[in-house]
Design goal:
Strand content: 5-15%
Bound molecules: tryptophan
Order of helices and strands: EHEHHEHHHHHEHEHHHHHH
Shape: globular
Number of strands: 5
Radius of gyration: 22 Å
Number of helices: 15
Distance between the termini: 30 Å
Strand order of the largest sheet: 1-2-3
Helix content: 40-55%
Length: 326
């Protein structure tokens, strides 16, 4: 079974990325061959600063490895180290109905937030379909916000199979299965909205201690007085705590909320302590990796080689299927 996912190097990774995509992807590694990549071509739809692009890409790889990605089990690579994916995206785009892309929420949301409607932003889901189909992926772990893109991928694969499928099974592509994270569907940010770089409400995985504490202390709360009972279910503090605390600790905080007598400031301190502790082993691993200057680039180079081998085979199949080659 091949498991595939991508993460954009559009900024520094935060705990929303961690619980939404990275942790499930790392856990899935034991179930098959994981192909995980840094989606730098995709990031180019929103990031036009070459130095930031280089730095973020490297840093996302480093942070992913520090969080437990095992480069022996799978492959970690840069999307752009497999340029065949853009060739496949072109082929896919020729059967993709405009209407399918016009319906994509992610595109509409980005435009609504003021991003320029470039052709790349519009065809983003086609490139994503190519990412998935070029490795004959079976399972794609993603956050809920990517669910529609997976549906688009399956639609495009079906369209290719209908148009060009021949041979015994009539298939050019197998249809990938999404694996949507439900337990941690939405990780709330400091303001209670979904944690997202574009909302400026994030807590970084590897932020400085002082800054991390400051950010947690700035979580927005309602004005319930210290003595009164508080609702844990609507509190970002409690929701974030439950991601890192044990069941017993979570229950204890739930009760303390319901009972009253504890202020939000105290709950924030508990959250900070538990969160800081949770990422301690990852910080240690990160320091180890940083002590080996070439490690990350070596991992990426090896990953690119493995990914290329598969992509080249699939692309050869596609070129034949559509008649670009004999
Ligand atoms: N669009 C995804 C995101 O922003 C990243 C991504 C690009 C991806 N290509 C992919 C995820 C292929 C899964 C599979 O999170």
């Amino acid at each position: 079974m091949r498991i595939l996912s991508g993460i954009q190097p559009s900024g520094v990774l935060h705990i929303g990325n961690y619980f939404g995509m990275m942790r499930p992807a790392i856990a899935l590694q034991s179930e098959g061959e994981a192909f995980y990549f840094i989606a730098d071509y995709h990031a180019l739809t929103s990031l036009h600063d070459p130095n930031a692009m280089r730095e973020n890409s490297h840093r996302v790889a480093l942070d992913f490895l520090a969080c437990g990605l095992d480069p022996e089990r799978g492959a970690l690579f840069r999307q752009s180290d497999v340029p065949q994916v853009t060739e496949l995206a072109w082929v896919l785009s020729t059967v993709t109905p405009m209407g399918l892309l016009e319906r994509c929420h992610s595109y509409k949301d980005k435009i609504a937030r003021g991003m320029t409607a470039s052709a790349g932003l519009f065809t983003y889901p086609v490139l994503m379909a190519a990412d998935i189909l070029i490795y004959d992926s079976d399972v794609v772990p993603v956050g809920k916000d990517q669910k529609q893109h997976l549906e688009v991928t399956r639609d495009i694969a079906t369209k290719i199979n209908e148009t060009f499928g021949s041979g015994p099974d009539g298939q050019v592509f197998k249809l990938p299965e999404p694996r949507i994270q439900t337990a941690t569907e939405v990780v709330p940010g400091l303001d209670g909205q979904k944690m997202s770089k574009s909302y400026g409400n994030t807590i970084d995985i590897f932020g400085e201690e002082k800054e991390t504490r400051k950010r947690i202390m700035s979580i927005i709360t309602d004005s319930t007085p210290v003595d009164e009972p508080k609702n844990p279910e609507t509190s970002s503090i409690f929701q974030l705590y439950s991601l890192v605390a044990s069941a017993a600790e979570t229950n204890a905080m739930r009760e303390a909320f319901a009972q009253g007598g504890t202020g939000y400031g105290d709950f924030k301190k508990q959250l900070f302590a538990r969160l800081w502790e949770h990422f301690a082993p990852m910080r240690a691993r990160r320091a180890e990796i940083l002590a080996q200057p070439d490690y990350v680039e070596q991992v990426l180079a090896r990953g690119a080689e493995r990914a290329n081998a598969v992509a080249e085979q699939v692309m050869a199949r596609v070129r034949r299927a559509v008649g670009l080659r004999r």
